[in-house]
Amino acid sequence: MNKEVGILHQSEIIRKGLSQIVRSIFAGDIRQFDKIEELAEHLSKQKNSMVLYIDNTCLNTDLYLKGFHNNPRIEVIAIKTAPNEESICENAITLQNNAGQIYRISRPCFEFEKNVTRSDDNNELTRREVDVLRLVAMGHSNKEIADKLFISVHTVITHRKNITEKLGIKSISGLTVYAIINQIIDTTNMDNLI
Amino acid sequence: MVEMIEANYHLLPVINRFGLKLGFRDKHIEQLCHEHEVNVEFFLAIINTFHNKDYFAELELKSFSPLLIVNYLRKTHHYYINYVLPKIEKLLESIIQSSRQGNTQLHVIHTFYQKYKTELLLHIQEEEELVFPHVEHLINNRHGKANYTMKSFEAEHSNVDIKLNDLKSLILKYIVPDYDENICNDFLIALYRFERDIKDHARIEDKILLPRVVEIEKQHT
Predict the structure, then answer these.
(1) How many whole angstroms separate alpha carbon B141 and alpha carbon B180?
(2) Is A100 on the interface with B (CB under 8 A)?
(3) What is the pLDDT of residues B81-108, one digit of tens each?
């Protein structure tokens, strides 16, 4: 899941200034929005998670409260004009902040997500994938694997794609090495296999 | 020239392929090229392509004689065979020596590397013995060697590419670090540099040489 940054503020000077500052700690897309409707439209079109810097005065509008407040995909940082301004948002920067302060306040939002979608578990192969990997490493064709496991060739191909994506290994000999290292196949005749 | 190296020292082996060696003093690129009978525009085109992977002046590179390109590619092969591959192999052997005796994981990696190396050398040999002479023949004699065209070339590059990437992935992700990490880092760094170089090399072969030669073959039939 890709993360992006959004900046919603009427003032172009503030949008551009903040964008510049954020660029030093974030390499992904930084999008600037003039009006909340633009932001709403953008969010409806894609599924990325977002760190959103938003004009504090927008936070009390209906559109924000209905559409974005408590949206789990969005982490909100309010932009206040003065420090004593009230805000419904816990995280806030003010126009008096310098870049260093902005980084400090923003940092928790940019840290690697704790609830990652790809946890270690997802990178482990399933039982079936291990079965397929074993046969691939032993040099069988897709058809032979399909026959041995009583599945379709199409399913074998899907498994192989998933295996490659999880492991980051594409070649058959590379997969064979992986299989040997993880004792998925018998290692008495290793060298010939690779 | 020195300024260019300061901007990107990875270019050092690249300039060697043109017969240019160090001790430039303050000479300008143009001057050095003239002194060594190197085509300046070609030199710069290659350098810029290598330096910036987003810079790929296809039309410009295609405007040069395929003979110039073949010569450059030959020198690059020479560098790979005589310097890079031996170096990588030595580093791999050092890693193995630094590990516990009977470490089977590294043994398997070694076998995998040997297989990769054999494939790569075979591919390079085919280029040197079949492809390049065909190109030279074509340009010099206005007709190619009988029954040979360039089509089968491209697919092989991606095969070789994939194995190199797998080698990196296996070491980065799955091998238990039961070895000297500094030697392993040197090995990986050498791999990364080699990968970058050979990708650039393959790009020139696939996107410049191949289409250009196919074009010339068509003209002559």
Answers:
(1) 55
(2) no
(3) 999 999 999 999 999 999 987 788 899 9
